[in-house]
Each structure stands twice: as structure tokens, then as C-alpha cells.
Protein 1
Amino acid sequence: MAAYRAEDDYDYLFKVVLIGDSGVGKSNLLSRFTRNEFNLESKSTIGVEFATRSIHVDDKIVKAQIWDTAGQERYRAITSAYYRGAVGALLVYDVTRHVTFENIERWLKELRDHTDSSIVIMLVANKADLRHLRAVSTEDAKAFAERENLFFMETSALESLNVENAFSEVLTQVYHVVCRKALDVGGDPTALPKGQTIDIGKDDVSEVKKVGCCSA
Amino acid sequence: MMFLKRTTQAELDAFYPVRPECQDSVPKPRFKLRTGKTLSARRWHSSFSEEGQLDIAKVLRRIQRGGVHPSIRGAVWEFLLGCYGPNSTFDDRSLIRQRRREQYDEWKAECKKMVPVIGSGKFLTTPIVTDDGQPIEGAPGAQSDQQQNNDAVFEKKVIQWKQVLPQIGLDVVRTDQPLVFYQNERNQAKLWNILSIYAWEDSDISYVQGMNDICSPMVVLFENEADAYWCFERAMRRLLMWAMEYNPNTFLLYETSAAAETTANISEKLLKQYGKYERNNVRTGFKDYQSGLAVFLAASILENKHKRILKEAKGLDDVVEILGDVTGNIDAKKIDQSLISWIASRFDPVTHSLKIREDLTTVLDSEMVGWVLGVPSGDILFYPEKAYYEEFKQLKKIYKENSLCGAIKRSKVYHKLCFEKYNKSMFKQLFLLYTLGVLLCPMDNKTWISSSHVYYLNNASNAYEYNWGRYMLEWLTKYSDNWEVLGCGALLLAIIYLDRIRHASIVDWKVNGCRICEWTQDSVDKTIKSDHSHQGHYGKSK
């Protein structure tokens, strides 16, 4: 299968992060996309894990390195290291638990605080298979996504619904951002990228201090 | 014989029954009852004296060889985890047990007053208080009987505790799900009670995801909730270092070790630091040098590679090549000298701050330095302890004899490494010095470096435990007025500066590693050029 070629054969390597409250199904989205596996008896994630998979975008091979983390606040000590270099993000909530949708705003803020403004973000409404337990309406989520300029998709890692689409869409969009940027600076290598302000406040270095709160 | 084997296996399965639909997904336990090896109930009971003192040495041997029979596992664990000393008598233990149960019940009652669902056979998975501590209307079991307490510190503790309770619940439902035992909500609630009460009693640790897995076996093993609690509490004490916090240094390792290790020599210990998915990739030989290229301080390099170096580096050309693998993409010698001096002039050693622009100053701390250079920022600090003074003097003497005293030229070390014969220990020291020179004073081969570094490096037996970031920062501030001579940290300052003015350019991003590795000669050149005004000044990027 073309999608599972040799791991080191790729044109682009993109880091994508999965974020959202504890228990929304981040790890199962990851295992569904990278290994086509789903585990009903999955355990909570401890610390950080990542998995990779390559897909085709246009005629290029894009390798996605997808990072998964514990949802619990306590693991936030590793935040800036987790977000560092991410070019795409899946912001996941659980359609059966409204509180996980309410917290999306906070996750979004943290994401924007730690990443480049050109990051591609998709709001993911997971566990869409649990129709009878739904607590967040599609309309509400869509409206929020539009307001915040996010992509939106309803998924079910269990039923393998839209999981492939969600990741592919994010990776394709990232790829387009990269191509556009390359084009912008392409003409004159010394020229500043057009219309870009240097946003020092958002730069990684200012965030790095948060990394080590445990070792201090 | 066959029959006997089957009975014991069936006997074993009966202790921890697995839900039929999960039979296939649950890995088969490696533990097997082995007659004559496994510690049996009979042997266990006969290992006590008349008063009840335990011959621990005798049972330990057996446990080590063949494990513990499930029927006595709880009782054995109590001893192994240190709930009771082996010399305690039956009477002692029953007294301790009694007292501990009372203590637990007391705490449980205290917690129940604040959150009535505790001890009710049910548990929480949804929030009962908002982020700012206000009770959520209609949240089940949230109404507390307790009077508002005016003690702000206490109130804060209560709120933080209440906020963690639903997290415990979310993990409880995900704990050992294949076991029939946890299909019973009361058993899940038992696990939840214990973790919740622990979180209240040990508010420093509170609850961290993963503690549920540590606690779960105790809940299965002990009928009595209080006994399970105390066993868990003992286990936590032992696991404190591991369970307390996620160690950022481990994370650093996790990010960079792919480069330092190849499949052939990757150790099991290192492998454990990877996540479960990536672990397979590493095992099956997936290599991604590009993403993990990292600069470690000399000691770290040596830690990883010294065997290879000592074995393979016959001539210095090889050493340089190996180093080249590690020092990343920037040729520091090519970095614009006038930029370096300009940046150095903007570093204030008193406040550890670097003035990026007129209105923006970055304060350097050890974490930042550690991250930029990809060096470990462990807990141990380097201080020239008085106790080491004699040793230090001794070392200096040796250097003097080898004309390595004080600040020395890197080229001189190079020469010594190349053309003179040394024993392993001296080779190591020289190599450290050379490597350190490459990292600290990358400007050219004539740069002077201080041999006092070697003292620290030589004493760093486990490089990851030391705070190299802080060491670098102290070195930087100590010699900042003289940086051109000592060359220390020039590259570090340059990277921090370039990082701050970095023009968002997604194309150049790499996903892993420290900052110094993310920069390439090309991106450095481009950034410097764009920051250079027509009048020849830097700091144009405002």
C-alpha cells in the first residue's frame, strides 16, 4: 500500500499535535489514523507519545508526525516543548460531554500562545457514533469554528468515520501554507516574507521558561 | 502431569477473571505457578514464628525465583512494601492495622463532608466546581455540608482537590477494563475513593494520571479499602521519584536521543523513554537523523559515544568526523563576527539579560540555555565544593605537568590529541576539553578555553543529572566582559538573538531537537542579512 511506504522516504515532515480534554479520544484518533486500530479498553495517556504516517498530497509524500499527550492539566509542564514546531493541530472534544467543548476555548488560546500564527487548526468533534448521547450540536460547533477560523469535522475513531479525512485535510492545508510561503520568499532569498510582522511576543524563546517548572 | 498443569492454570485464571469479550485483546500473563518454586500459601504461613515474626530472607528467595501464589499476594505485598516490619508480631500487626483503618476512616469521613459522593459506592466523572471554584448547579453529589471556611489557603486546597476528582473518575473507568472485577461499579468506586483520599492527604502530589494503574492492583488484592489504601500509600512512597512529576529532562532525551543512538546499539533503557508507537519504529530500525540532530555538551556526547570514540577514533580526523555528526548544521566560524560582538555588547551579566531591541529585553535562565543548546538541565548544580578542593588542586597539577594549565588554545589540545599518547583517562579529559572548545568557543582554533571546565566534566558521572544550562549561564556571566578572549557562549547568544528575531518561515522548521540544531547556515545567513541595515548596524528588525 502506497500509504505505508518506507518511513524515511518523504518530501515534507510536518508535526501535528492532538489536544483536548482528558478522555475525548485523542489516542484512539491517533491509533486509528496511524495503525488503523481502535481500542475500547484504552488507558489514559501518560506524558507524550507520537506516531508517524506518510500520505500523498499532490505528487508529494508528506510525513505526519503526530503528537499525543495526556489531557490532564498536571502534564502541562511540558507544554512549550510539546507545541514547539507544530504546523498543524487537531483540537478534539467529545460530543457527549459538553464541558469538553467549553474547554476548547482554553485549548485554543494555549495553542495560539505557543505556535506560529500560520498553524492549521481543525476542530474535531469526536465520538460522533454516540448519537443518542450527543450533548453538543453540530451547529454550535460549526458556528464556533467559523468564528475562530478553524476547520471543522465530526469524527468517530470507533467507526473510523472521517478520521482519515480530518488528518488528511490538516496535512493538505499545511502543505499549501508551506508552498505559499516558499513562493513568497522564492524570488529574492534575502527579501523579507511579504506582509509578515515579526511577532516577537509569540516566539518560542519567551515560552521556554515554562518548560522546566518541575526541575527548578 | 498434564492434568496438574491445567488445573493450576485454571486456578490462576480464576483469581483475576477477564471479561469474555476481552479474552483476545488481553495479553497472556507471563506468571506461571511452578510447584516447588512459587511461594505457596502453605510455605508462607510456615515462615512465621510462633509470635508471628517473618523469616523474610527465606520467602524473598522464593519470591524471586517463582513469584507469589495469588491467594496470599496481598499479605505478601504488605510486607514487601513495608507496611509491616518482618520482625513485627501478630499482635503488633493487628494493632497497626486497626489504627490505620481508623485513620483512613477518619480521613474518608472528612472528605465525605466536602464531597458526599465519597464512600457512597458511586463516583464522579463530571466537574463539581468551576475553574474559579464556584459550585456547579445540579452537579451530582457536589453539595457539601461544610461551612464556608475563611482560611484562604485551606479553601484553595479544597477547590484544587475538587477539581481533580472528575479526572480521577475519568481514569477509573479506563483502568483495567478487561477485568470482570471492574464491571462492578462499587469496585470502581473503591479505586476512586482511595485515589481521591490520597489526593486530599498528599496535596503536593494530588493526582497524576497513571496513579490509577499503580493503585488498581491493591484494590483487586485487598477486600478492605483501608488496607488497599495503605499499601498504595507505601507504593507511592517508593515510586515517588517516578510518579511525582513528569521529568522535563526525560522529555529532552526523548526528543533528541533518536540522533544519538542507532538501532544497533539502542539500549532497552533508552527505548523505554519512547512512546508505545514510536518504540516500534525505533525497534524496527526506523532512522531519522535529520529530525534529531542535537548538540549536547561535551559530557553528554562522551556519555553516548565514548565507547565508539575510544574504539574507533584512531586518528583525530575520525574524532572530528564523529563530532561533526553532533554539532549540527551551523559552522560557527562562518557567523558574522561583527554580529557576535554587537550581540555580546548587549548582554548584561548582572541581570542575565540580552537586549534584543530598544524596547525588548530577554532574560536568560538556565532552562532557556539548556533548550537552546540542547544540553540537559538536571537537578544537580555544579559548585566547587570545598570537599573537592584538594582533588581540584591535584588535577591542576596534572594539567600543569602536561602544560595544559589555565586557559589553553584549542589548537594545542588538538595537537595533543593527535600526536601524543595518553591513557584513557587523560584522553577523555583532553577530548572533553576539545569538544567543549568546539561548543563554547566555536570561533576559531586559536580560541582560548579554560581547563577548569574539565574539572566539572570529569566529575559529571551522569551528565543528564547535572544542570548544564545553569553552568553555561554562569560561565557566560563570569566572562562576559572578556568574551572575545574566552569566546564563551558567543554562539549561544547569537542563537538566542536570532531566535527572537526569526522571521516566521515554516519551510525551515524541523520538528525535533534544540534550537541550535534547527538553525542551518543558510537560515542564519539570511536572518543576519535581513537584520543588517545599510549603515552596517544590526537590530534593524524592529
Protein 2
Amino acid sequence: MAERSFKREVEKLRLGAGEEFRGEGILAITKALLQCGVGYIGGYQGAPISHLMDVLADAKPVLDELGVHFESSASEAAAAAMLAASVHYPIRGAATWKSTVGTNVASDALANLASGGVTGGALIIIGEDYGEGSSIMQERSHAFAMKSQIWLLDPRPNLPSIVAAVENGFSLSEATNTPVMLEVRIRACHVHGRFITRDNRPPPMTVAQALEQPRRDPNRVVLPPASYVQEQEKVNQRWPAALAFIREHRLNETFDGDLNDIGIILQGGMYNGVVRALQSLDLASVFGDSRVPLHVLNVTYPLVDQDLAGFCSGKRAVLLVEEGQPDYLEQALNAILRKHGVDTEVYGKNILPKAGEYTAAALHKGVSAFIQSVQPGAAGTAQTADKRNAGVQAVQLLKDVVPQRPVGFCTGCPERPIFSALKLSQQALGEHHVACDIGCHLFSILPPFNIGATTMGYGLGPASASALNVKAGKRAISVMGDGGFWHNGLTSGIGNAVFNESDDVILIVDNYYSAATGGQDLLSSRAANAQRSTRHPIESAVRGVGVKWVRHIDHTYNVGKMRDTLSEALTTRASGPKVIIASSECMLNRQRREKPLMRQAIDQGRRTVRQKFGVDEDVCTGDHACIRLSGCPSLTVKHLNDPLRDDPVAHVDQSCVACGNCGEVAEAAVLCPSFYRADVVHNPGRWESAVARWRARLISALQRRRAQRWLHIEPGLEAGG
Amino acid sequence: MAEAVVKPLTIAVLAVGGQGGGVLSNWLVTLAEANGWRAQNTSVPGVAQRTGATVYYIEMLPETEREPVLALMPAPGEVDVCVAAELMEAGRAIQRGLVSPDRTLLIASSHRAYSLSEKAAPGDGRADAGAVLAAGESAAQRFVHADMAAIAETTGSVISAALFGAIAGAGALPFPRAAFEATIERGGVGVAPSLAAFAAGFDAVTGRPEAAKPPESPPRRLQGGSEEERRRYAAACERLRSRFPAPAHAMLQAGLDAVVDFQDAAYGDEYLDRVGTLAAADPGTNDCELTTTAAKYVSRAMAYDDVIRVAELKTRGTRSARVREDVGAAVNQPLRVTEFMHPRLEEMCATLPARLGQAIEGSQWLARPLRRVIDRGRRVRTDSLSGFVLMNALAGLRRWRRGSLRHRRELQRMESWLDLVIARAEHDREAAVEILKCQRLIKGYSGTHTRGTGKYAKVLSALSRLDGRADTAVLIRELREAALRDEAGDALDAVLATLDRAPPPDGSATGLGLGVESIGPRRRVSNMRGPYTT
């Protein structure tokens, strides 16, 4: 793994009955899985569920003791397909990924799974990456539940509720022979909380036992005529069973309040935000005692018509709090009330945002508008937050002051020189169409590189340039990471390009890990992994599917070579796809490993060379061309106390890891001679020290000689400033 | 709900990815839990961790029998303590409404981590820190700030530890100092430096604010030079004081020092001659603005950046001391210094005697093979004897600099520039000042230098079209500022285009009416489309 240990987290997985767990939501889910007697777990990493995968990867001893099988799946589709083990065998299985992107990838397997149905509980944990900080398209996972008849849980965002949802999810799945999705939003995944644990339970039947006693039931296979029967079964048997289970086990919760002619119906995940909005209107306490009755949908699909109609009857108006679009729940609620002849007025997206995250401010505004219009006078002295600062002029002036802070490559990132080189190559050969992919390398589309036109999905960079595979004066360039390559890019990108005789350029960015998701190992990772088979070179795979023109650059920081290789690929007469594999280790992971080792070596008196780049401030003229070709966080600007200077000069701060990009770029782009690299030798040998002393003495003699002839004036500020 | 209304204490932490915002919010939770409080924190890590802006949100309240319902994100107007790990993040917090005058204690690190748009501007793109400090004062109930990055550096720790100290020092939470320190100790990683940073952060917001004294600046230092050279320099200094108006003395001295350091004392005399011509045309108003501006930019023009200068700067004794300090190397510790150079034929020719240089440049026969030999990236080790001797020899060409092709070209350019200034100085002093300031456009080496000179020429060639206009000075300033906004010069071209459409001069016009702002926000670069595509 990526040189990171999750030992402390693994210990929490061992907590027994009656003990208290304290930690993150996603880790609570991991613990809950073990408490439920899960037999196998698979998944594909990505925020916000990476932590679940990382911890389980380090938890082999715990899993082995229980007889639980864990896989780092090749993709979400692979993870979803894994749940096939619960089709015939009474084994509980769980799969996890980031949604909606992962659910998109998994949907083929999910649809098959849902059609045939399951015997053992099948739970899909989806980390909903929606709203602030999200890196993906903004969509809802709800539609997947509806189209495939998978039940969707959306528990209140506190650890006891989330843990209960895992337990209820397995039971619901088994009671209805249907897979269940557990939707957890990103903040709930990362929320710190506590719950009382139970003992871990070994699965009643392990996958090993299943393997030794195989079973099959053709009625569960998706093939006519069984598939027609399965469709009928979904609506005539599994659905009613689900409604019965949800009612019997009270999975949805109703909280009474004294203002009982109005009410709020909400997704479980919205609960804390709604209560806080009511609280600031003096309509609820911090413990959730609300004057407005609340009906909390911990299950958002299927909806229980009777419960909803029952909650609404006798009420003048209800507010439905449903995050995201389209408004599936609002449509359904209106239909349900009409069918049941309940004439309660339904408020929803008419006063809440039609799209986008339901932030604290959005909920406050919407709930407040609802109360104002249906129960004016009930709310306390509601203070709208915005008004307090509105009049302050100094605050308004900030609009033109505070700069955006877009994400970018980390200090020393090996991908920066690749895009510096691509920018330089395009300066020489003209702009090209560049198709991007998912991964850290997608930051190329932002300043300072401004490279890349589209991103169509993980591993789909080359495929997304395939329409441009025609004879023309220029070639398309597509980018793909090592993560995307193994996820599906080898077939959808490389194989596709070979088969269709593409003439375009494919750039594979290989940083040894699935870096953007937290540095998980891949097939081509370089480090040995005791539990996984690594070190399968990308180049062999690429050649294996028939690519003839392959260039492998094993040190991306060589900007000149990188640029020349790109230019060669764009201009060569060779036919077929041109594949460049640019490999250097992710700097975050490398530093995590090397920094402590270097500190240790220095402390132990071993000879160690520490490097750092710098800028000669009197040589730099303050044009910042170097920054426009780099964007490195450690390459910044510095104001000089020199009255003759107008512009700040470039400056390399102490976070520099000496990757060498700035020097390489200055050299390749013929920028300026301001950059230097300093190598400090710790614990030098006696000979080395002597040579250094001797050199320094000679050099300072030469310096003294020159000083005798020329007058040097070190600027002071007594006269200036 | 008759009993007293219980409300959680709310804390928002705004940080830049990699600043340790996560560590800080975890400390706050541990601190609260260890002191009988219940705490919840959450955040949206992910891609934002990669150098973007991130918000961590914590709520806490005294332990109770019942489970509280705590919020997962800050609500505008309902934040008690707002912690910003960088100054512009404090500005962002204020903009997002997370700082309100009736309840928020704003604790900020006053240091700057410049955003890419600020750093990438060809000129000075830095945002106005004063605006954020002013907004903090009026937006917060209380605003405390100190340079936590400096504290982190001196204590060998991280910003989050210094901020944790500031939170304790500002009395933001109902826990004693010892409880904070115990939290750090419980973490068990880098305890000693963290505690030092904590203490310094604590003191920074509790101690009396130190009188804002400017940093100690070293006095001017003279080194070497023959006796005659020193005498001549002293005479120039004397001339400066006796012949030039007092308000310009400081700038003149800086300018004189720079050109003498660049070449020799005689060059200093030439400098004073040139500035003197302009000073004669200065009516002396506005603190002798014309003379002061001339003092600054004539010096910049005369001390141009050539190969000789670079070689000389890279081989100075003071330079190796500066490098040692920057990398934290002890005096006797072996230090290797590698310079990244990429000389071109152009630089070689410019350094040669003018005629020879010109001849080579003009000859296809000579230029092409020479280019193949010279034009490539070279790494020179200035700590090694051979590298040093090479660079020292280049620096020694200084004695022949006056005969070089580069010098001749620089002089020619300077003279025609100063002619333009003098021609205006009589009747439009403000325009003359603005023309002087255009020297700022010329900077960099190789391609960058060529591009800068091109923009400079474009701005100055527009002068003829401005003849007779009352707003010439304003227009030149607009052109110059546009030229500094992007690398390719798109903004400059846009302003130049409007120049042709501008109404004829009638004396009342003031500029094009499309100052800096109308071309596009100065300090913001669009996320998706920057101006640096070429």
C-alpha cells in the first residue's frame, strides 16, 4: 500500500459488545459490516469511501479470523458483479464505491443482480459525492434504485442511525430477495461521532463453504423466460414485502410536535440540517424536540404510501425536503396524496432550491419561508444571517480582492512536468485537441496549463477522442492515468485505438498508484504488496494488445525529453496509435516514505544529500513566466525591499522537495538563469569535507581578487526605502 | 422548552489543502471530549485537499444525557469561532457570511499563501491584504491575527499548532491552557515543536501587539574597488546631494548604487548626467515626481540584465552565504550548487564586441553551426572550481562591456526613450512620468525579454496617436497596466484597439473609460480559461 498505515483504525474494528466506538462515519460502517456477519466485501476506492477500502486492506488479520473475504475490485462493475455470490448462497455481501460515478459504471451488474434477486443480504454502500467539494457531475443515485427496483436507504447522519441502517439493510435485503443501497453523503462519511458496538459475527456460511457446495437455480439467471418472471416478481412479491418490512420495523421515523396541522417530510440525510434550521427559528431544541412534526424517510425508495398519507392527513400543509433533482419524491408524494384523497398542500422545490446541495443557508431560507407562509408568527425572531454584514462596506469590497483558489498539482507532483512539456510542445506545434480523463491529471485543465477539452469518464480519455480518428493535419492527444488504464482504459482506450487503426496520441500518466483516491495499489504499482499481485508493467499490457509505437519515459521530470517525445508522437510518420507512458512516483506517497528515512539517516550520522531549489532574487526580473509553466505551490513570489523594483520576484519556499521541475522548465523553455539547485551534504566523509574546504578557499581567493578591482555595493536601505 | 436554551459552540476552520486543517479540527474534538464535552466535526476532503480551499466544521457542547443533533456544515451568521489558516481564507470566510459582528471571534494567520492567479501575473498580481484586515475588523465581533507561518517556521512546527495556541490565547473555548497542551501531548507526534508553536501562537494573540517597527535593514555596504574608484563614487554621491532636490535623494542614491555596482563609478556619473537632464525639466512639484521616477527607471535601464551581470551575481561571496541560509547549511557543510542555464547564440553575440557580434548574427553561414554548438541547456556547478572559473571569467568581461553589442543596443533604446520623455516633460509632465514608468515592461531573459520589449515598443509607438490629447498620461498608464496583465499581450491589444475608436480629443476626455476593471477583473483568472494559452 501507499506507505500509510491504518493500524489505529483497524484496532477499532475489534471493539466488542458494549464498548464505545469513536471515529468517522465511514469507519463506523466498516465496523457495522463485521457486526452483521458479512461474508465478503468488495469495492472501488474514491472519496468519500476510500477509507473503508484502506482500512479493510490493512485489516487482514481481523478479516481472516472471521472468515471474511475482501477484494479491491478492478472497477465498480467488478465490485457489483461480486455480489453474485449472494444470489444462490445465504451469504451477506457488501460492495462500495463513490456515487453517482461508480453507480454508473456498476449499473450493468446491478441491473442483473436486481433482476434475478438475492438469497443472502446484498448491501451496496454508496458514498454520495454531491455538493461542496465534489469532483464529479452533480446527479442523484435515486434513479438507479427506481429503475432496477433496488431499495434505497438514506439514514439520519449520526453514527447510531448509520450503523442501524447497515443492519436493517441486510435484513431488508434478505426479507425481500432484493439488493439494498445505503446512501451516505460525504459529510456523514467524514463526521466524527460515537456508537455502542456489538461483537463481530463470523458469517454463518463462508464463501469457502459455498465454493465446496455449489448451488444453482436457473430461475435466478437473467435469461428468458426467467427474466420475464423476475420482472413480475419484483412488483408483485418483492415490493409488497419491502413495504411490509419497512412498516413492521419502523425504518422510517415520525417525530411529533405541537404544531400538528403542518409538518415536514424529509430525507434522513437532511435531518440534522432541518433541525438546525428549525432551531434557529426557535422551533426546535438542540436535542431535536421539534414543534413541527417531522416524518423522516430513512428509506427513500420505495415510499410507503399509507405512512405518507397518514402523516399528511389532517395537516394543512407539509414541506418536503428532498435534495437534488429531479424531484422524484415530490412527484411521488403528490400522486400518493391524490390517490388517497388527502388535500394537504405540498411545499417543496417551490421554496427550496430546485438543484444543488441543501446547505445550512438554503435550508434555513426554505424552512423559514415555509413557516412564514403556513404558520406566520410561530417562528421566533428569525435572524437572517446575510443581513448583518450586508451594510458593511469593507466586506463588500472583498469581492474584488479575495482570489479564487483552484485545486492544482501538489508540490513536486510528477504530472506537472508532463503538462509543462505538453504546453511547450504545443507552443512549437500549435494547439491540439486534448481529451482528458479522471484523475489528478485532470487539473491540467485549470491554470496555469489550461490544457484539455473534455472528460468523459474514468479510463475513457482515449475513447473520448476516437471520433477524431481521421486523416488531418493534426493528431488528437488523449490523456489517461494508470488508475483509469486498469479500470477499463486498456480495452476501451488502447484496444479500441488499435482495432480501429487510430493515428492519435495517447499519453498514459503512471504515478504508481491510484493517487487521486488516496494512493491505493494497482496492478502496475512498483512496491511489493504482501496481499496483492503488483508490478505488472503498463508497457507489457499496451504491447500485448498490439500497439507498435510505445515510448516509456521513466522520469517525467526530464521536461526536455518529455517535450521532444510528445512532439515526435505528434509528427512521426508511423501509423497506428502512438502511446507514451510517463512514469514517476506520486510525490505525496514518495515523501511519506522517504522523509522519515532521510531524517533517520541524518540522525544516525549516515552521509545524506538533501536538495532544494532556489531563485537568485537579484537575477530574477519578476516576470513569473516560470510560474505560468509550473503552478507549483512551493514556487511563489516574494516582495523585495528594493525601491528600484516594482514587481515581486519568484521565490522557492521551504516546502520544496527538489523535484527539479522549475530548473528543467527554465532550461527547456529558455526562460532565465535564476534557478539553482542546492545539494546539502549531511555527515560528509573526511575526504569530501577536505575537498569542499579546499575548493571554498580557492573560490573565496578568486572572489577577493575580483573585489579588489571592482566596487561592490550591497544595497542598504538607510538611503532608500 | 422552558429550560434554558442549550446551543452548541460552533467553530469553522478554513484552510488551504496541506496546512493541517484536519489535524487542528481533530485536536479541537479531542480537547472537547477530554474535558467532558461532546463534539462533532466534519469536512469535505477530497480533491480540495490538493492545494484548494477547505472548510472544517466543529460543533461542541457540554455532555448531556440526551443525544444532541449537531449540524454538519456552518450556517452563515451562526459561527462562534472562525479560524483562518491564511489571510485570504479569512477574507473568504467573511464573504461566505461565516463571520458576524454579533458573535464571531475571528482568528487568522496574517501570512499569505499566494493563489496561482496572484503569482502568475506578469506584473504584481498580489491581492490587497489591507482590505481583508479592514474587513475583519468590521465584520467580526473580535479579530485577532498574527503571522502563524512565521511562528511555524521558527519553531519547526506547523501552522495548525500555532493556530491552536491562538485559539487558546484568544479565550475562544472554555478550557484552560493546560487542557490544550495535554491534547497535543496525547497526539504523540512531534510534541515538542508543536508545543513550542502552540506557546508562540498563544503569546502572539495575548501579548501586547508589538509596535509595528520596520524590519531592521542593513546599512549600505561598500566592498573593494581601487582608491580612485572609491573617490569617484564619493564624488558622485556628493554631486547627488548638492545638485539634486532633496525629495529625490533616496531614490537617486539607490539608483546610483545599482549602476555603480553594475559597472563602475564612471557609469554612475553617466547616470547622474542622464537624470540631471530630466531634473532640469522638473518644475519640482509633487515631491519632484519626474526626477524621482527618472532616478528609478534610468537606473533600471542602465543596469540591464546581461550575461556578464548574471555571471557576476552568481559568483559573489554574498551569494553563497544567501544560498546557505536558504537551505539551512552550516558554514563548513559541503554544499553543491547547480545553475540551470540555457545560453543562446543571441546572448553570445550580444556579449561580443558590437561589430563582431553583429557580423555573426547577420551571417547564416556562421550563425547556424554556432547555434548548434551553443544553444542548449547547460548545468554549471558554481561550487566546483571549473564551473566557478568559467562564470568568473564571464563576469570579468565587465571591463569590455561598454564595447559590447548589447550595451550599444541598450544605449540606443534608452536614448530614444529619454528623448520621448524630454519632449513631453516641458508641456505634459505627467505623461513624461508615465513614459518613464514603461521601462517596467522590459524584463526577463531570452523569449521573455523579447516579449517584454515588444510590449514596450507597442505602448510607446501608440504615443504618436495620442498627440494633443489632454489625457495622454492616463492612457499610457492604462496601456502599461494592460500590458502587465497577461503574457501574450491580449489585454494590451484590446486596449490599443479601443484607442482607435476613442473619441477625438476635446480636452474633457479622461482616459478610455475602460480602466483596468473593464478588461476583466485584475486579480482573478478564470478557472477554465486563462490568458496563458500560447
